[in-house]
């Protein structure tokens, strides 16, 4: 009788990344993101039995992800404002002619 294949084990690294993604996304969106919480989480990761190189890679991705999120939020907030200003400027200049 054939047995079904065993599921692949979920590593603690994957659990950390999953928790990070949901916590960061939710806290940045609702404005409750605190840098001190981030610092404590990273200290816990570095002190954990995981390899320290994974913790530093995680930290680099975390900083890059937050920076990218803030950059994109700023860009998509500014684009409509700049566009509206430009359209208003063009409309005013056409009215004056």
TrEMBL record:
Transmembrane segments: 55-83
Lineage: Bacteria, Pseudomonadati, Pseudomonadota, Gammaproteobacteria, Candidatus Kentrum
Protein name, UniProt field: Uncharacterized protein
Alphabetic keyword roster: Membrane, Transmembrane, Transmembrane helix
């Amino acid at each position: 009788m054939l047995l079904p294949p065993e599921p692949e084990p979920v590593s603690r690294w994957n659990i950390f990344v999953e928790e990070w993604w949901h916590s960061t996304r939710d806290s940045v969106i609702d404005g409750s993101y605190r840098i001190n919480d981030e610092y404590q989480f990273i200290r816990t990761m570095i002190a954990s039995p995981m390899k320290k190189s994974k913790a530093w890679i995680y930290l680099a991705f975390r900083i890059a992800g937050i920076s990218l999120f803030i950059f994109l939020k700023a860009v998509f907030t500014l684009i409509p404002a700049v566009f509206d200003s430009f359209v208003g400027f063009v409309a005013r200049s056409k009215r004056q002619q």
